[in-house]
Amino acid sequence: MGSTNVNRRDLIKRSAAVGLVAAPGMGLLSACASGGGENENKVDKGKKSKDNPLAVNKDAGLEVVIFNGGYGDQYALDNHKVYEKNFGKVSHAKTQKIRTKMQPRMVKGDPPDVINNSGAENMDVASLIEKGQVADLQPLLDAPSLYDPSKKVSETLLPGTLEKGRFGSDKVYQLNYSYTVYGVWYSKTNLEKLDLEYPKTWDEMLAACAKAKKEGVAGWTYAGKHPYYFSFTLYPFIAKIGGQDVLKAIDNLEPNAWKHDAVKKAFEAYHELYAKGYVLKGTPGIDHIQSQTQWNKGKALFIPNGSWVENEAKKTTPKDFEMAVAPPSSLDKSDAMPFETLWAEASEPFMVPKQAKNVEGGMEWLRVMLGKQSTQNFSKQVSALTCVDGAAEGLDLLPGLASAQQTLKEAGDNLVSPRLHDWYLELHKDKVGGAIASMMAGDIEPAEAMKRCQKAADEVAKDDSVKKYKR
Q1: Which of 154, 236, 294, 345 is the most exposed place for a label (fewest CB within 10 A)?
Q2: CB distance 383 to 310 below 8 Å
């Protein structure tokens, strides 16, 4: 727990972050309750063979919990059927309340075998790993791939996938299944109605928003209730202006990282969207679904989002919408990185709890999901890439996914992958997200937003109870 010189409020807050407090009224549990001890009900291992490289007990059941968000859960139900051909029955549950539902079970030492730890209520995986509650996935990575049997699973994954699953060690604890392209999403159709092309510079962006405003259309909307969505364009914008090292300094909690000139320029540019009235009225009070719906209705041209949006918003997306994604507009010619610079990375995290009853089965379920049948089913069904290299090639892709794939190709090596959201969840979502939310709502100026971000980062850097990471 770090230094003992903390008050009771701080102690409870820190304990909750690592899963020691399950819910209000449950009280503070002992450290050994979350220390990663063995589940007394663990199933016996099966016999290792060519067809069963992970030694799964074929008669044992498996419990899988899926985040019911942008990708839904049908892809997982389909994966269950493939798994059940050779192994035991799968018990399935879906929820948007991952932390509320799963953290008490992690504390009690009776977690499911696979958890899709995603969404606004995801658990702090860094803290869970620190407490020994997450299984090392190396057996899975060393197993033969069901996508290409001539390779190990680890050899079939896109660059950066393994790194995303590491938290300060060589071990991989988390499998990020989807490969997400973050950026500015728009409708080609709606831009064409205004005789516009996607703005590649900030001056062009402001001009596009001004033209839209004259026609009664807002330039931007976003998930005001989940302001960390803005990081999907702001983080790569900061890197584009000042270079990769600015994001590295932010990730590494370096002093004055948030005071860098690139951060100042990025914040001031986005604040200008608010100041000139280019943000859809009411945006600060709406969530991701509501913002996407308004965007689909043509109320706003641009929205910061990830490539799950095509599936998540499909019920409200017009057939002729022609969804597309682009990198954030360049600021000006002084930018350190080219326009094509993009945030793209393995995302949608899955983990196998160390205390699960059927750890081997959990890893096998993930191995099946990384096979050709399930990866291609995922891409066709939810319009998203997977972390398996080349798995979507040859498929008939929807417009948004085709655009994401093309944008990723054009970026080449100009990819950024910030880690703040992985390593310091509360800092990223609540503190930085909160500062950006206040700035974009017009409550504070960019300078104050920078100050708040830096103060929050400094507090984490000085907190001995929080494990630190470097890149």
Answers
A1: 154
A2: yes
Q: Find the DSSP H helices in 215-252.
A: 231-242, 244-251
Q: Candidates 3.20.20.140, 3.40.190.10, 3.20.20.70, 3.30.1490.190; correct CATH number of 8-180+346-398?
A: 3.40.190.10
Residue type, 400: G
62-67 and 90-95 strand pairing:
parallel
Query: What's the pLDDT at 120?
Result: 86
Alpha-carbon distance values, 408 to 181, 353, 404 (Å): 7, 32, 6
Average of pLDDT values for 206-228? 96
H-only helix segments in 148-217: 161-164, 188-193, 202-214
Paired strand residues for 346 = 179
Burial of 263 per CB tally in 10 Å (0-12, 13-18, 19+): buried
- Stated as kind and residue range, the H or E segment containing 76 is helix 74-84
Please tell me the predicted confidence (pLDDT) of residue 41: 84
Rounded distance between C-alpha atoms, residue 49 and residue 342, angstroms: 43
pLDDT in the model for residue 168: 81
Topology annotation, domain 181-344+419-462 = D-Maltodextrin-Binding Protein; domain 2 (3.40.190)
Question: Per residue in 7-46, is it b (16+ CB within 10 Å) or e — as a string?
Answer: eeeebbebbbbbbbbbeeeeeebeeebbebeebeeebeeb
**Average pLDDT score over residue span 56-81:** 96
Question: What pLDDT was estimated at residue 117?
Answer: 97
**Residue type, position 239, single letter:** A
Those residues whose C-beta lies under 8 Å from the C-beta of residue 136, and which sit 6 or more positions away, are 171, 172, 173
The H or E element containing residue 304 is strand 300-305
Mean pLDDT of 320-348: 96
Task: Give 12-34 pLDDT, tens digit per residue.
Answer: 333 443 333 333 333 333 333 34
CATH 3.40.190.10 residue window(s) in the chain: 8-180+346-398, 181-344+419-462
Does residue 9 surpass a pLDDT of 80? no
Q: Which two tokens stand for residue 79?
A: 């994966």
User: How far, in Å, CA of 454 to CA of 391, rounded?
Assistant: 41
